[in-house]
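Please complete every field before forwarding. Incomplete forms are returned to the sender.

SECTION A: IDENTIFIERS
Entry label: holo-385
Bound molecule: magnesium ion
Molecule representation: SMILES string

SECTION B: INPUTS
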Amino acid sequence: MNKSTLRPRETIVAIRAIPYAIPYGKPLRFASGSISVADNVLIQIETDNGIIGWAEAPPRPYTYGETQESIIAVVEKVFAPQIIGRSIFDREGIRSLMNRTIGNPTAKSGIDMALWDVIGKRLDISVHQLLGGYTDSLKVSHMLGFDDPQRVGDEAVELRETYGINSFKIKVGRHPIDDDVAVCRAVREALGEDAELYLDGNRGWNAVESAAALRKLADVGLSRVEELNPADEITSRKWLVERSPFLFVADESAPTQATVTREILSGAANALSIKTARSGFTDSVRLIGLAEGLGIETFLGNQIDAHLGTVCSLVLGAAFDATSRHPAELSNWLDLEDSLLTEDLVIRNGEMKVPTGPGLGVDIDLDKLQHYRVDNQMSPLALLT
Ligand SMILES: [Mg+2]
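SECTION C: PREDICTED COMPLEX
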């Protein structure tokens, strides 16, 4: 039997990587880096029938080694030539092709999620429903970056009063550790007992410093901690996790099925953060299943996503029981000065509702994209020639 007759066709004719830059009104600082501009890459997939799918890839050189320039290069020079001409329904084939190239997780994920957007639009169904459609909203958790205790406490209170958010990740990992201990105490005092607080060290401390901080914070009431020290400190990381009174979440140490299995089975963590920015939809689904099989909790993390990236997290997280149990990190777009989406994102009563339209359920404002894209501006060097 002719294989092509079994396979619905809608052929990919173009994959584009469009860099843009939107400033943050308030930069986010953390142990492994800082962000003052969303210098992301929009991924656009076009089909022969004119369907356009979108997603975005955030460069995080301190975590994945990718830059805005490297994402554009690998999408346009390596992935697009292999994928153009294939059916949009050849999702696993496209995944296999991309996995012949190592690394580049956000570039691969951007292509994967733009492809899901295309498939949803082609079938006139939301990606949220295609993935699992478990619930229609998620509770929101907000990430608080480095600052002095009073300001971080005030920021948390303002976010709760304005948006109803009552779950906060506090970035830690500074020296001396007492700077961060003071911030955690200030946030707890500002919010009272009913707020959820948890920590993310982004590998800023070693195991001994982490253990000392946890002792000092024993009465602050934390729900979990994440990547306090580097997972590569293999023996001392295991020592720390064994002594941690809180769930210890693997984030950047466990972005793939193999690394999740290795980190969890070796005792280097006992819970998992999933981020669509680095595992797309296709591999995030695999990670959710793996975590269920390992019997660990999953939390929906934030790659400091802009608006479109946040929608992707929301769509994935609300599609599954396991990823909708805990507040999801969905709110750091609040600090961006503008959005590329035609519709506003809304946080009300501490929750975000999943868009219901076909595909991802949101559209790109092409005028704004024209304004913020950085690939059509004349280089300052060009003025000299
Ligand atoms: Mg993290």
